[in-house]
Amino acid sequence: MRHILPRLSVLLFVLFLACIADIVLYLVFDARSDVLRSLPGEHHEVVGKLPESVQNVYNRPRSDDPDEENKRIALLNDKVLATHADAPGIAVHFQELRGRVWRGVFTVNPQTPPGRYAVTVFPKEQLHPPGPDQERSMVLVDVFPDAAALRGSYVSLSERFLGLGPWWVVMAIIPLAALLLVYAYRRAGKEEARLHAEGLGPIYKLAKHKDHWDILFGLGSEHGIREGDELALLDPKLRRVGTLTALRVAKESSESKVGLDADISPFHVVSRAAMPSDATGDAAPGGTEG
Predict the structure, then answer these.
(1) Crossing angle of helices 166-197/4-25, nearest 10°?
(2) Class of the 198-280 domain?
(3) Residues of the chain with pLDDT under 50
(4) Which of 242, 258, 270 is nearest to 207 (CA)?
(5) Which of 35, 123, 135, 166 gets the most CB atoms within 10 Å of its CB?
(6) TM segments (predicted)?
(7) What pLDDT does residue 1 have?
């Protein structure tokens, strides 16, 4: 488990970075507000913006009264806004107009064939939709034959293979990472207490220099360590592979140095008690320095 936790942490971190990159891909290539992806028979709430604000007496404010609200929506669709679509199977039912911003529900007929269709929204008082050389409010509707084709249209890997927005994957990773952090913290505390009870200290820091390794390990004055004490260096299987000298001693940790040829890694431990080399293995080169 001591080796699995760091690898699992690295895996989650790499996955998190991949999801962030996927979010960037989604925002750049897939999140166009003027393009709507749909399957036949689906409904979508869409928000758009007109080139200019509409001043129309039939555009009433929202009401808490259900009957008045139904009348408002009916007037909005009958007297205020109109649409022009190059496919008869796409209908728009407007819900609200505030200044230039409109909100409505797009319905794609189940019989609509796959393809890209343009839907133009314009004030009803114009009588005709704007020409191609005029500024207009237009939504492109991409209709796909099935869900697999729809997912395949996305650049985002999460959308393409999972059918989920990449932010949902990030939201799933965050609690997993938090649980892993809590578990690792609690386990590290228990493991360190167990090591101290056995006269052992974990290696906190291992820094490589030109001619030696700097070591910070978890045995200090409260564990009976004094400056100048010679301690045993053990591998993960608790076999002695060398020795080191406590150079600077704090309450809960100490510092030392060993040669570059020493057998050492972050998973080694330091032993307070001397361990005979003939019982646990010969000492590795690169013993005590300084």
Answers:
(1) 160
(2) mainly beta
(3) 276-286, 288-290
(4) 258
(5) 166
(6) 7-29, 167-185
(7) 55
